[in-house]
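Issue: ligand-bound run for zinc ion - logging full I/O for the record.

Environment: standard queue, default settings, no custom constraints.

Inputs:
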Amino acid sequence: MTETSAPLASLFASALLVANDAPRHQWSEWARDAVAAAQHHCCAYCDAPLDAMCPQRWSVQPVISASLGVPAASEFLRVACKPCANAKGQQDPLAWPEWQRRMPPERVEAVLALRRTALLVAPQHLTPHRPHSPVDAVKEHLLARFAHPRFRAWAWRGREEAFVGWPMARSIHRSTREAMAVLLYGQRATRIPHPKAVLFALPSDRFLEAVWALIELHGWICPVSLHAEPAPESDDWRESWPHTFTSLQDLRRRRRAHERQPLPSPPRDQSQSPSAVSHRRAYAKRREAERRHRDAVAQAGYRSRMGHVDAGRLPPLAFEDWAELYLDSLLHRLPRAL
Ligand SMILES: [Zn+2]
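Outputs:
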């Protein structure tokens, strides 16, 4: 970190803390009671019966928090007993692995299905597809992102240096632990100590790669504006990271209905001759099948190792060792967007 960047990092931290401090949506007592009654006064997470006469012992909260960009709609609300509500907090249910391990798979799947529905109406960053790619291909790309817990981070890119960060939480959840591993060990970012925010600095020329790695990890990356000169934009399609879409159709077109120009796409391969096109498609299909196979093997290996750690059959890993193992498991997954 250069000497001039310390005040800039501190400005960035203040800006993200202000941006994060949006008021929470308050549900009326009537809405709360209606949701609890519709769910037969049973906790959506552990199925514990809830006393309708003691509303202080349970709460109603969105399956995935509005602070993660999901619209505050009553169909995404679930009733939770106090211990589950406290354990889950504002985080994505996927960032709460203890619950998933404890509960029967059907219960977990019911919550996760609602989570997917809610996520499909939340703001999404672009995918590396060209305009008018098949809907299924774009949706499949989004669902691969949804396999990671959603988190929110803020970013700013100056001429020399760029910053990424989020507010400090009481504990490090799965999502932020994964983002930290990618930034520190995958992107060689530098952690900057701050009392209220988790901050990273990295050279400006590595920013786009880092930010898209976070997006593929299901980060919702929000731009911060600072009174400092931002980096000049290049014609790289990844410069469109601050844009998000709430409609799959708009995302696929890479523009909103009222906008004329789509956002830039990754470059198309040069040759247009029919034999070259079919050859390229067959090759891409083969590469994709190989990638999926290697990804499945890597993911299975990671889950099996972590399963042994969680069950106490293997000792817990130090953060550095876990990060190395985790990044190895991502090797065939993340570069798709880059
Ligand atoms: Zn519960």
